[in-house]
Amino acid sequence: MTLTESPHATEAPAPRRPTRRRSSPLGHPLLGVILLVAAYVGLSFLNDPSGYLGTDTGGKVLTLQAMEARGDVGHLDVGYWAEEWDPNGDLHGYWGTNRSTDGAWVQVTTVPMVLAAGPLWDAGGYRSTLALPMLGGVLTALAARALAGRLGGDRRARSLAFWVTGLAGPVLLYALDLWEHTLGLAAMAWATVFLLDAAGDERTSRGRLALAAAAGVLWGVGFSMRTEALLYGAVLTAIVCLDGARRRRWGRAVQVGAASAVGVGIGIAANSLLEQTVLGSTMRNGRAGGAAGVGGSEATTRLREGLITTFGLDAGSTGVVLGIVAVVALGMLVRRAVRPGWTFDRPDVVLGALAVCPVLVGLAGGPAFVPGFLIASPFAVAGIVLGFPASIEHDEQDDRIRLLTIAAIVALPLVWAFQYVGGAGPQWGGRYVLASAFLLSVVGAVRLAGSEAPIRRFVLAAAAVITAFGLTWMVVRTHGFASAGEQLAAMDDPVLIAKDSTGFLPREFVAENGERRWLATLGDDELDRAVEVVGLAGFDRFGVLVPAGATMPDELGGMRRVGVERVPLVSGAALEVVHYAR
Predict the structure, then answer these.
(1) Contacts for 92 with CB less than 8 Å, ≥ 6 apart
(2) Shortest CA distance to 539 belongs to which of 530, 548, 550?
(3) DSSP letter at 103?
(4) pTM for this prediction
């Protein structure tokens, strides 16, 4: 010790080097894609390929069966055995079948997907066609990763957005069913990425026009599969352009808006040309026109169904109330937990219990559809809560987060106003508002990636558990409906009539009953007409499909009731086939 040193002096600590966050190999994009595909393929084998998540899938299977039987990929005619006696198809057994201008009976909601599925069906049947929705799931997850990067997310945030989107949300279920939801959502998701890129400061005028046009084309492509794509495209483009105008970047706003509009026109025109070539007429434009024509009608019903697709644990009022309690509690918990210096306290226990217990109560009845997107996508709740910067001073990433959050929320009541009425309950995670769930979930993942680990893990666990519940329901449902279809196929009735509320069900059983003669009726008058058609066709017996316990007369059209057969479905629900013979 020297004379200038104090005996009580201590050595100053060496400055700490900044610690590097250890990166997980799961964060590598290519490995993530490989693992995600492997997960999709593996989980798909839990489902029965003769059962589906919804009736629209059965319609596609019916069309693919018809294409295979005719050996013509571009011929979508599913036929109608009773056309001679019912030329308008009022009693067609497969709901939603329409007559094209060339006389074909068409059961299709999206032409591009059915045409793409044709060769896959020929190669390996239904399981092979799942490559299409799986591709959509992967593309959506990659879009989530890209969008998280555009919002300033680091590698952890990008990885979290990828896995939450691909495996811990509604995309997982829709990736395992031959429905167009994942492909349509992927188009909308990448359109959002390109739109943000087009509005960026670093783009040249030519690059901005190209990106905005590409975004527009993707909105048009998304429209060919999901009608609400046009609505989301309009909302997001308008908000981005208005933000540019607010910043006095008028030229940029005009360029982005005009190029995007041109791109949308190109996408819609391409799909219309394809439909005109295959069907002889346009279909998707008519669906959009029909939705616009009834938009805003039945306001009370639309509000109720909007609440169901937002908060619903089921389609009942109690399920909506329980869902609101759970969502509000989770939002408050997230808000508290991201504050600087947060420590776990008694209010957090209460909020956590309020976030979990209503969901457990609502799901206690067993596997079933959970229609509320904020229940099926907990990260979307975090996106709403954290999507608006807390401070006045914020950077460009904060601005983008705010814009996407606003767009996702503003689009909701617009979707409610135009969505199909009557389909709110039997769906998973708000299939009409999947784009809002996607945008808010990515925002939530970006915000939570840098937060305290406990709240991030809590929300991630909630997302994983509710998605596992949905996967369980899908497995139960596909096996239950496949078993019911086999039982129906074993019945020797030459004609089955699906009456009233069961009229949409024949599409559920096409795997085993695609060649069966079905009729579907609504009301007693149509039932009498259907029985008359059976007689005109020369048959002396038939069966009527009704809900279990429904009252049926002892005689119909001169034929007497000769027996009843119970057909179990899922979760205690069952059908009955009432047999009649001359």
Answers:
(1) 80, 82, 86, 105, 519, 520
(2) 530
(3) S
(4) 0.91
